[in-house]
Amino acid sequence: MGDWPLEHLFYIPAILLVGVALGFRLGAKAAREELAKRRRDRMR
């Protein structure tokens, strides 16, 4: 496996956290849009 640079200890978790945050943000946006669509459809 070899010696990994110390940067990997911070870089890999940081990239994973960015991915989780981005996924949460996009998922929350999609959920809000879906709820708004259902409310509009129900009002008709």
Q: What is the overall number of helices? A: 1
Average predicted confidence as pLDDT: 92
User: SS-based structural class?
Assistant: mainly alpha
Shape: rod-shaped
Give the biggest beta sheet.
none
- The proportion of residues forming helix, as a percent range, comes to over 70%
Low-confidence stretches: none
DSSP E strands, number: 0
Q: Can you describe this structure in just a few lines?
A:
This protein is mostly helical. Helices cover 84% and strands 0% of the residues.
How would you sum up this structure, described in words?
The chain is mainly alpha-helical and 44 residues long. The chain is 84% helix and 0% strand. It has one helix at 7-43.
Secondary-structure map with pairings?
Elements: H1 7-43
Which key phrases capture this entry?
44 residues, mainly alpha, 0% strand
